[in-house]
Amino acid sequence: MKQRTIREAFSIKGKGLHTGVKTTITFRPAPVDFGYKIKRTDLQGSPVITASAENVMNTQRCTVLLVDGVQVATIEHALAALYGCEIDNCLIEIDSPEFPILDGSAVEYVNNIHRVGFEEQSEERIYYEVDQNIEYFDAETGSYLILMPSDRFSIHVQIAFDSEVLPVQKAFLENLSDFKDEVSMCRTFVFIREIESLLKTGLIKGGDLDNAIVIYDQLIQQKELDRLADVMGIERRKIDKTGYIVNKPLLFPNEPARHKLLDVIGDIALVGRFIKGRIIANRPGHRINNLFARNIVEQIETRSVFEMHTNFS
Question: Which positions are annotated as active-site residues?
Answer without folding.
Answer: 286
